[in-house]
Every structure is written in C-alpha cells, then in structure tokens.
Amino acid sequence: MSAGLLYALAGAALFAFGVAGLILRSHPLRKILAFNVMGSGAFLVLVGLGQRDGTADPVPQAMVLTGIVVSIAATALALALARRQREHGNDKEERDA
Amino acid sequence: MLDPLPWLILLPLFWATLAFVRGPGRGGRLAVAGLLLQLALAGGLARQVAGEGERVYAVGGWGAPLGIDLAVDGLSAVMLLLAQAVALPLAVYARAYYAAHEEGARYFWPLAGALLAAMNALFLAADVFNLYVTLELLGLAAVGLVAASGGAGPVTAALRYLMATLLGSGAYLLGVALLYGAYGSVSLSILAPLLGADAPLAVFLAAALMLLGLMLKTALFPFHFWLPPAHGGAPAPVSALLSALVVKASFYLILRLWLDLFAPLATVAAAQLLGLLGAAAILWGSLMALAQTRLKMLVAYSTVAQIGYLFLLFPLATDTGSVASASAIQGGVMQALSHGLAKAAMFAAAGTVILSLGRDDIARLGGVSSRLPLTLFTFALAGVTLMGLPPSGGFTAKWLLMSSAMHSGQWGWVVVMILGGLLAAAYVFKVLRQAFLPVEAGTQFKPVPRLLEWPAFLLALASLLLGLRAGEVLGLLGAG
Amino acid sequence: MGEGLGVRDGRGVVSVTVNETLPLLVLASSLIPGLVIFSLPEERHGLRRAFNLTGAVLKLLFIAIMLWGVLHGESYVFRYSVLPGLELVFKADALALLFVTLSAVLWFFTTLYAIGYLEGSPHRSRFFGFFSLCVTATVGVAMAGNLFTFFVFYELLTLSTYPLVVHRGTPAALRAGGVYLAYTLTGGAVLLAGVVWLYGLLGQVEFTQGGVASTLGPEYAGQLRMIFFLLIAGLGVKAALVPLHGWLPQAMVAPAPVSALLHAVAVVKAGAFGIVRVVYEVYGVEFAQSLSLLVPLAVVASLTIVWGSLRALFQDDLKRRLAYSTISQVSYIALGVALFGPVGTLGGIVHLVHQGIMKITLFFCAGNYAETLGIHKVSDMDGVGWRMPWTTAAFTIGALGMIGVPPLAGFISKWYLGLGALEAGMPWVLAVLAVSTLLNAAYFLPILHRAWFRPQTAPWPAENIPMKNGRETAWLLLLPPLVTAAATLLVGLFAASPLSPLDWAKLVAAREYLNWAP
C-alpha cells in the first residue's frame, strides 16, 4: 500500500469521524470542531490521492490551500454565530456542555 | 464594452466592498446601480450565447490547469439572467424595506453583494473545485444574511443552516477529491469524456457523495429540516433571495453534474429515487405549508414543496436524447425560473404585509385586500405560478413535465403534480381568503411606500408572463 | 377587409392583419378596461363607469364586425406559439361567435345592472376589475381554437370569478368561495390530465369540424374513452352535472350580478360550451357515437335535469331555487349534444343562448326583489307583483320561458330537443323532457301565483328603495331585466328569421353534420 493511499484512507476515516460529530453532537463548539476534522479529512484525501508515482502533485496542494482558507472563514463565521447565540442566553446549550 | 463573464463576478464584489466601506446600512443605491449593469450584462450574455453558442474565458489569460476557466452555456446563461432579474427588483424592495425597518440592515448590502458574486461565479465555474469554492462562499454569505437581524431565533436558524451547508459542501469536497484521485483533473470538460459506466467504484462513491451533499443544500426532502426556520425567520428581502435563488444554485449544480458528468453512471434506480424524494417533498411540503399559522413559514414550506418539482425531471430524463427527456429538462429549468420569480415576489409581498400590519398571523389578515390591494394581487399572481395554473411559467413547467411523463409512460408523476397543484391552491387560498375578511377592530395598517409594492408586483408579473415567452427561454437553454 | 394592414419586418409579410387582430381586440376590450379599473381609486365612479361601458360597447362592435365577416365567408384566426408545438389559438368560427355574442350582449346588460346594484357599496374598483377579467376569460373560452387555449381560459375563469364570489367578505361568502374553488380547481386538474393525455396522443388538438380524435387507430379506443371521461368530468364541474354540482347552490351568496354572470354568461356556460366543443370538434359526434360515449352522457344529463328540478321544488330561498333550476336547465345543452343527430344538436346549441337570456332575466329580477324590498324568500313574495309590476312581468316571462310555454325561447329549445330525441332513437328522453317541464311548472308557477294573485300579508322585509314617481326601483336595475325579458320573447317569436339564435345554431349544426340541410 502506497503512502498516498494510506493518507487517503486516514483522511476518509477522519471525514467519517467529523460527519459523525457534526450530526451527533449538539454543542455548537463541538460541531465546529467536528466540521474542522471533517474538512481536514477531505483535504487529506485530496492530497493523498493526488500523488502520482510518489511525487507530489502541485494542483491538489493549491486546492487544499484554497480549501483551508474557505474553512477558516466558515469556522470564524460559525464561532461568531455560536457566541451570538450564547449571548442570547441559550441556557440549554450550556447545560449540555 | 465590459466582458460579462468576469464582470458579472467583479461588479457585485465591487459594490459589496464599497457598501462595507461606507458603513452599516449604506450602499443600497450603489447596489441597485450595479445590479442594473449586471442585468444588462447578463442580458447581453444571453443574447451572445443564443447567437454563438457556449464560450470559455480564461481568467488572467492563464488557462486551465494552472489558471481558472469560466464557461457559459445556455443553462448557465439562463440561470445568470434569472439571478440578476430577481436580485434587481429585490434590491429596490430591500432599500424601501430597510428604510422602514432597520433591524438586519447593517450588513445586508455587503452580504448580498458577496452572495451574488458567489452565485454568478458558481454559474460560470468550469471545474468541480471552483464549484466547491463558490458553493461554500454562497453558503457563508447566505448564513450571514439569515443571522443579520441578530435575534435569538434567526441566529439559531443560521447556525443550523450553517452546519447543514458545511456538511453538504464537505461531502461535495470529498467527492471532488475522489474524482481528482481517479482522473487527475477537476475540469468538467476534461472529466466528462473520461467517465463511463466502467468507472472505478471510487467515482460512483464520488458521485453519490456530491449528490448527497447538494441535495442537503437544496433542501430536498428529507433534508429540508434547515430551510423553513432559516427562510421563514430571516427579514423578507433575505428570505426572498434565499428561497428564489440560493437553493436554485445548488440545484443547478446537481443538474449540471447529472447531465454533463455523471450521465453514464446514472441508473434508473437512482433517478427514480430522486423523483420519489421530489414527490415526497411536494406532498409533505404542501401539507406542512397548509398547517402553518404564520405567513412566512407557510411561504417557506411552499419552497420545500416547489423544490420537489425540480427533482421530478430526473426519472423523466433517463432516456437520454428522447423527446420525453428533452421536455423533462426544459420543464425542470422552467420550474426553477418561474419559482424563482414567483417566490421572490411572494416573500416580498409577505414582507410588505408584515411591515404594514405588524404581525404575520395568517388568521388575522383581515382587510389586506382593501388596504394593500396591490400586494395581495402580487401574492395571488405568484400563487398562480405556484399552483401551476395558466398562463404562468409554473404552468408551462408542469405542462412540459406532464407531457414528458405521458410520453415516457410514467403516469405516477402526473398524479403527484396534479395533487401538488391542488395542495398549492389550498395553501395559497388559505391566505387569500383571510385577506378578504373585513379589517379587524383595533388594527392599524401602516402606510407602505410604493417602492415596496411595485418591485414585488413586477416579479410576480414576470413569473406569470414567463409562460407566454417560454419558447425564447427554452431556445436559449438549447443553445450551446 | 381580408387584406388588412400587413406589417413587414424584413422577412416578408408577418402576422398582424385585421382578421387576426379582431379576436385579440375582442379580448382586449374587456381586459384593458379591467386592468385600468383595478388601478382607479375607489371614488372615481364616473371614470370607472366610462371604462366599463366603453369596453362593453367596443366589444359588441368588434363582434358585430366579425359576425358580418363570418356570414360573408371571412375567417378570423390568431395564433401565438407558446412552446414549440403548443399554440394559443383564437378562432371566431360560427360556434364561437354564438357564445361570444351571447356573453358580450349579456355582459353589457350585466354591467349596467351591476353599476346600479352596487351603487354606494365598497370595493367597486376591485369588483369591476375582476368582473372585466371574468368576461375576458369567457370570451377566451368562446374563441379558443384548440383544447389548450380552451383550458388556459377555463382556468382563468375560475381564478377571476373567485374574488367575485367572496366579494362581500362575509363568512358565508368565504365558505361558498372555498367550496367553489375546491370543485372548480379539482375539475380543472382533472381536465388538465385529460388535455395533456390527448396532446400526448395527438400532438395537437385543434378544434376541427368532425373532430380530430378519429385519426387515431382503433387500438386507442380504450384510452380515448378514458380521456373523454376525464374531459367531461372536468367540464362537468362547471356545467354543474350531477353529482358535480354542489358548488352552484352555495355560490348564490354572491351579489346578484355575479350570480347572473355565473349562471348565464360565464361559468356554467363555459362548462357546457366545453362539452359541445369536446363532443363535436375534438371527438366528432359520429366518432363519439361509435365509441358509445353519447348514451352515458345523455343519461347523466337526464339525471341532472330531473334531480335539479326536484331539488328546486323544495327551496324557499329564491336564488337557491333559481340555482337548482340552472343545474337542471344547463344540462339541456349537454343532453342536446348527446342526442346523435342534427336536430338534437340544434336544440342543445340553441339552448346555450336561450337558457342564458332566460336565466339572466330571472336573476336580475331576484336581485331587484332583494335590493328593493329585501325579499330573499319565495314565501315573502306575496303580492309583490303589484308593488313591482315591471320586474315581476319580466320574471314571469323568464319563468314561463323556462317552463317552455310557446312562443317563448324555452319552447324552441325543448321542441328541438324532443325532435332530436326521436331522431336519435332515444324516446325515453321525451319522458325526461315531460317530467322536467312538469317540475319546472311546479316550482315556477307557485312563485307567479304568489306574486300576482295573493295579497301582501306582511310588510316588506327591508324596503331600501322607495316607490318614486311611479318607478318601482332604480332604473339601472329595471332596464336590464326588461331588455332580456323582451329578448326571451323575441328570440322565440322570431326564431325562424335570419340571424336569430336558432338560425345561427342551424348554421353550426349544418357544419357538424355535413350532409344535413335544415
């Protein structure tokens, strides 16, 4: 098994964990973390499968960079919203934590 | 003359940035001016595509694979035209709306600009990765708009919407990764000829992931849970933008992938499943709409139902190249267009009623017919499209879908469409009949500016007249 | 006038000639006033009246030109392609003109009546706006040149009448509106299924003498029977065929001019007219006979005739009694259509006109009683003939016409229907006609007896318009029923003269049965 495939499989596993967390967890912060795990998994698959004959392919690297920027923006938005929701005194969420 | 391809993306970014710089709540006039220009560009582009067929634009002169290509064909030209044609009257409406109702006005214009830039870029994107980026940006801008009014309800709805949209685009991204792994390219035009029924399992997996992610973003039953609170809770101009356009963007993407990329992989069973989900959406969404007591929630559930019609095209279009398949695709696109116009009009009209009446209780709409006749008329005209009655665009869409079902012998869908139309009539008239009641004692109708009523009316009228000009629209769709 | 004002656009002579624009002008002469009236402020009564009447007069004028033209061999067709292979077609053929003329003439008088009737009531801009749209839809139904166009305007008619039915905004009106919509929209949906199905088989369903369905092979007989069922069920809702008639008695809560419109000019007529079109020009009467579709239709129509009359017998509410009477009378049209043979056709088609004139008279009069004296019930009508002699005279003519007393309009219809039944070999229909006539007499004569021969026993329920200078009610309310009552008499007396409804119906029948000369 090539190193690339190993990365991809690990990425797939991460993705699955992330999805499970996103769906099963109710606390916003955990959801946001889960989303990041999921995103990293997808990036890992992209980079892992993108290797041809052991040499790195620049195109998926560039794509992953773009993807990271997007997911940081998404994380920031999610955090801002989660904080806003907390400010609105949503006690239920706090109890769950 | 500006080249429409890059400028349809740059212009909204430009006015969004300026609006942001000028400070909270400012920039509406600029946006209207920008949208006028965008509409002209989209119109010019449509004419160009109708005449000369599809075309590609290499951003910065780099060209794929290093650079980014933009591409336009009949389908994307039609969608671009829809987006600008809906956004322009809505911008005029939004200016009047936020002048009367400040809540949520702060970042409306920058976010709306970003939304349109992302959407236009999505319609023009030529590779699956850029589609991901634009899809994600579109989702983020939409979530921002939902949260903009800042109340506890909208923020919770926005967070839920955000998680759904992130999950959807995450699944899509994994699909992109698998595709790239299999073929070493993300370009639609390079991938299309490579895909065949003998594709590796990873590609089938990729297709399934991408489709699932997009279904979640399109709010197809049973993934519609996030839509009603997000669309129903946002300020009216935002609800209108989201219901009319944003869900259509991810539907466009499904259609594009299904037709251009995954056609050889598509099985009858998968198509039937999509159709069944669509049928369930029509029936469930309509019944839920009928059960609502609040006006905007009713309209939001009606979106869930109307999205269902879009997915009926897949089982009808399985026999590629046949008459039935062609008219199914035409019917689906026609439904996307007419629902876009009508739903924008309907949310805008609902917003006007709520602004004037100060509440959105369906049971207490008495007097709307005499105090806000134009707005009620707008609601009714939009309702005609949703019911699929002639001569509206919604009727043309249903006619095409029904003819297709007749031609391919799939009777069941006809029954679903007829039931859906009757249920739509039930929920539309549930609103209209209350409006004919006399004014409730103690109710004050706040006067509303004309700029609030007329843009919505024009949108509704457009959705109605679309049915009479369907030939041209479908001609454009067929070009390129 | 055939050459018209050809417009050139570089590719040769294009479409717009006078002969093509006339059908459009007939539509526009009520559509445009309607749209303008919507935008008029409530208090601009004079302007609104001017638009209404100008539109109504212009429409009559355009129709007169077309009548003249059709008699002289002109044809008036307008086509507009909605989709490839799907056209909106307006065609003024003999049958279309019969219905168009009826509705335009009656519209004119109903407009006059409505202006008088709604004097001083709120929301008149809305009312007259939808009123005009409703007539536009009716004219569209009449001139539809293919099944698709017919369906488009048939649905438009549903939508434009709803606001009129619920106009008063009372809970009863809203309930009636709901029932009306539930029936008509479901009917429309069933009709749509039939229409799409037929288009799927035929590609085009142009109304053609002799029908187009017969071009399909015998293997399609089963499908064609099912489509026929769908079409007739869809149309039967508006035509109030039993058991699809439930909405009509409810809808009588609407203001009297609306009832007049529903019962005589527009809605039930559109349904009946649709049945005529489907049997003669989609299926072709001979083909329909060969599929054995006509006898079931005759049976349903006969049941409706008897059932409607029976129910009418037990209604004390005057408008309700008239509503059940409509259910019964409109089915004469369907019955005539179902009688295979030219004479039956003649009876059915001529009744399309006659029923309209008679029934509108009765509804005008019922409106006058309600508006002037607050009389809604038959039991309150004792002696009303002496308080309102002109109205009651008009009512009497209408009622006697409905019973079929010669030489009034209804007699002509029944005469030809009876002959047609014999010609078609269905003598049992004569029994239906006889029973129906007896029942008609049984529910109309007591009203006449009360009005003329019984003394007033109690004060009028609500005398809104007092007797002034010997005038029993407002002249705008009185004029229309007098005119239509006179017409009831005249179309019967002069049935044999050229251009009478009967004469025109002969023209239509002669075209459907090519080797028949009246």
Strand order of the largest sheet of chain B: 1-2
Largest interface: A-B, 40 and 33 residues
List SSEs of chain C in N-to-C order: EEHHEEHHHHHHHHHHHHHHHHHH
Percent of residues in β-strands of chain C: under 5%
Apparent shape of chain B: globular
Low-confidence stretches of chain C: 1-15
Q: How are the strands ordered across the major sheet of chain C?
A: 1-2
Helix/strand class of chain C? mainly alpha
**What is the terminal separation of chain B in angstroms?**
23 Å
C-alpha-based Rg of chain B, rounded: 21 Å
What is the residue-mean pLDDT of chain C, rounded to a whole number?
A: 89
Helix amount of chain C, in percent?
over 70%
Q: Count of DSSP E strands of chain B?
A: 2
SS-derived structural category of chain B: mainly alpha
Distance between the termini of chain C: 30 Å
Biggest sheet features of chain C:
2 strands, antiparallel
Average residue-wise pLDDT of chain B:
91
Strand runs of chain C, count: 4
Task: Work out the helix count of chain B.
Answer: 20
CA-based shape of chain C: globular
Topology, element by element:
The complex is a heterotrimer of chains A (97), B (480) and C (518).
Chain A: H1 3-24, H2 28-49, H3 58-87, H4 91-96
Helix pairs in contact in A: 1-2, 2-3
Chain B: H1 4-22, H2 28-52, E1 55-58, E2 69-72, H3 74-100, H4 108-124, H5 128-147, H6 152-183, H7 188-194, H8 201-218, H9 227-233, H10 236-261, H11 268-291, H12 295-311, H13 313-316, H14 323-357, H15 368-371, H16 373-387, H17 393-407, H18 411-435, H19 450-465, H20 470-478
Helix pairs in contact in B: 1-2, 1-4, 2-3, 2-20, 3-4, 3-10, 3-14, 3-19, 3-20, 4-5, 4-10, 5-6, 5-10, 6-8, 6-9, 8-10, 9-10, 9-12, 10-12, 10-14, 11-12, 11-18, 12-14, 12-18, 14-16, 14-17, 14-19, 16-18, 16-19, 17-18
Chain C: E1 7-8, E2 13-14, H1 18-39, H2 45-71, E3 77-83, E4 86-91, H3 94-117, H4 124-143, H5 147-165, H6 171-202, H7 221-238, H8 247-250, H9 256-265, H10 267-283, H11 285-290, H12 294-313, H13 318-338, H14 342-373, H15 384-387, H16 389-403, H17 409-423, H18 428-453, H19 475-493, H20 501-512
Antiparallel strand pairs in C: 1-2, 3-4
Helix pairs in contact in C: 1-2, 1-4, 2-3, 3-4, 3-9, 3-14, 3-19, 4-5, 5-6, 5-10, 6-7, 7-10, 9-10, 9-14, 10-13, 12-13, 12-18, 13-14, 14-16, 14-17, 14-19, 14-20, 16-18, 16-19, 17-18, 17-19
